[in-house]
Amino acid sequence: MFEIILIMAIAVALAYPLGRYMTGVFSGQAHFSDRLFNPIEKVIYRCIGINPGVSMTWKSYGVAFLLSNLVLGIIAFLILKFQHVLPMNPDGIGPLSWDLALHTAVSFLTNTNQQHYSGQAQLSYLSQGTLIVTLQFVTPAMGLAVCVAMLRGMVGGRDEKFAKDGQERDLGNYYVDVVRGLTRVFIPLAAVVALILASQGVPSTFKGAQNVETLDSQSEVTEQTIPVGPVASMVAIKQLGTNGGGWYGPNSSNPLENPTPVSNAVETIALVLIPMGVVFLAGGMVRRKKFGVMSFVVMAVFSVSFIGLTVYSELQPNAAFNELAAEGSNWEGKETRFGPELSALWGTLTTQTSNGSVNAMHDSFNPVGGLMTRSGMLINGIWGGIGSGFVNFVIYVWIAVFLSGLMIGRTPELFGKKVETREITLLGSLIVLPTIVLLGFTAITVALPALTGNSNPGFHAISQVFYEYTSAFANNGSGFEGLGDDTVWWNISCVIVLILGRYLPLIIPLAIAGMMAKKRTIPTSKASLSVESVTFGVTLVAVILILNFLSFLPAAVIGPIGEALQLASLGVEG
Amino acid sequence: MTTLNSSSAGSIITGIRFSATLIIVCGVIYTGATTLVGEQLFSHQASGSIIEKDGKAIGSELIAQDFQAPNYFYARPSAAGYDPTGTGGSNLAPSNPELREQVRARSQSIQALEGVDANKIPPELLAASGAGLDPHISPQAAEFQAPRIANTRGLQLNQVKALIDEHTEGKQLGLFGQPRVNVLKLNIALDNASMKNENTED
């Protein structure tokens, strides 16, 4: 318990100054970091061939975002498909199948890092150390850029002061925002984390695997191959960038990827640090710090209660161990050096933040733990993915503003910009989208048993399928890993879900913010709804709960809730 | 300030140059620099924390080995057969009858080996770890095995317990971590202790 509180306290204590620093980076004012980074960025802008002074409307910003994704995606697919003929492949690894290469490219491009391959066994050093690492840096920076542009739009754009009503507004320069995020936030943080991890025992080398002869000659396993590589540098950005795709198959439960309690604490903090920082950044960008604080508190309420329930769940015994062992916690799929509490903490945070890395196997969590992890992904706005998480949160805010406006009989508005029919229609489409996609694909897959590839029977089988699609849509990437998911059906259906889950929930809010930006600003009066109040915070919590209950409660009943009831009814069985 | 226009989004060429530049910055410069600096600063850890005995690599501090001989402490069960290249967990749900069967089989063989009742066995010794390579067990799980080790090795029980204490790792920085024992290091220490005993007896 003490360690959970300590880790969360350190995370918040670091996130606040980080949020203030990022506000400086993105606000467009002169900043102390300019002296160091301006010359570097100038070279990068010249290589890309852009003029950093160019401003973009929401449309140009969105087009630039989509265009850069398309090109990067094609490059990623080609590298994965042809890794066997490309350099940096000391272990002689072959090519990926076309569907696996496509799934892997899209999965990393969408900041999801869902893996249908097994890390070190199927990817070359070039694929992992260069391509995947690049995507793990660039995609959170892209999400952050879109979020920053949306926040600028919410307060009328960078040219609010002198632009006319109805005129398209300046939301910033997409390429500049991505590059500044990389050079000033992601790369320096990742370098520090990578070195700490290397000191703890995460491999950091370009040498090939090490062979050892083991101690006990009576064992059938007398030799081991210890796979190493440039692991630390990748794990650092995997954790910091809400990516989650690990070097080794079982991710940070593998002792080479997460060797000690200190590495675990650092990786857990890295997991929430930037998503938390973005909340404070948001308060700074809209020049209303209290809005940042309200958002932080609402997210913290969800986060802490989910952590509490998951920890409680995993401290309970695993039903399969009943009368076969001494009383104890659920140890299946967990590592001794972390124990059930820190595994539950990680499990909760990784699904809330859209990270998806794991330090224990979620498939073997008790049912309540499984319910909490998938709930975090369904809400997808408690901290959330970098940028994308806060964008999702703003969707809830707009809906809560609209509902509160109706309840008190005022025109719904946020920061003086009216929320009207056009915006609400678009928001409505974002609310039904996950329901249709997740329930639809789960229904099809479950209906055709030849497609599923389950490792578990009964209620848990439905959970495995639902979890996989939820994880794809939320761009999370964690899995109930027992699923046999490297098939054409799983690869292609997940590619569709990944794309829908990444681009629509980023582009539509950007469009809404762009459309609202050019509206006339209503001056604040006493009658205006205060989004910084406790009342609004409570309304927002209710909106988040009700929307998700309505959408996904039935699916939870035939999944983890059914499983929990089934285990309870079995009782003491021999 | 430049005026806003629709062509400011850039072209496919911008996308290609953008991708290529960032692959070099993130994938080549960042990865290369941090990996090399990490390797220089922490050469033992950076290359897999290999343990050597008489100049021969006999394992990694971080990777569990399979111990079958009754005079060694055994590690936690592995769903990966203790193969670091096939690392993984069981991924079996608590409701899965297969998990129940696996745990029952493990429980029975440990009951027979240690001569104890099921309700004395620490659950972690029956539970497959997350990656199948967990190098640690809890001090309780080590003490649980101590009487058998003392018997098979002809050592005093106190001697074995003292070795466990010596190899129990505590909190890092005084803050992080549960007490745990590295099974491979403990077994190496056991071999050394047995050897010393034989030498003094000679």
TrEMBL record, chain A:
Belongs to the KdpA family. The keyword Glycoprotein does not apply. Part of the high-affinity ATP-driven potassium transport (or Kdp) system, which catalyzes the hydrolysis of ATP coupled with the electrogenic transport of potassium into the cytoplasm. This subunit binds the extracellular potassium ions and delivers the ions to the membrane domain of KdpB through an intramembrane tunnel. The gene is kdpA. The chain crosses the membrane at residues 61-80, 130-153, 174-198, 268-286, 293-312, 382-403, 424-448, 488-513, 534-558. The keyword Ion transport applies. This is Potassium-transporting ATPase potassium-binding subunit. The system is composed of three essential subunits: KdpA, KdpB and KdpC. Keywords: Cell membrane, Ion transport, Membrane, Potassium, Potassium transport, Transmembrane, Transmembrane helix, Transport. It is a multi-pass membrane protein. GO terms for cellular component: plasma membrane. It is found in: Cell membrane. GO terms for molecular function: P-type potassium transmembrane transporter activity; potassium ion binding.
From TrEMBL, chain B:
Coiled coil: none annotated. Keywords: ATP-binding, Cell membrane, Ion transport, Membrane, Nucleotide-binding, Potassium, Potassium transport, Transmembrane, Transmembrane helix, Transport. InterPro entries: KdpC. The chain crosses the membrane at residues 12-33. It is found in: Cell membrane. One of its GO terms (cellular component) is plasma membrane. GO terms for molecular function: ATP binding; P-type potassium transmembrane transporter activity. HAMAP family: KdpC. This is Potassium-transporting ATPase KdpC subunit. The gene is kdpC.
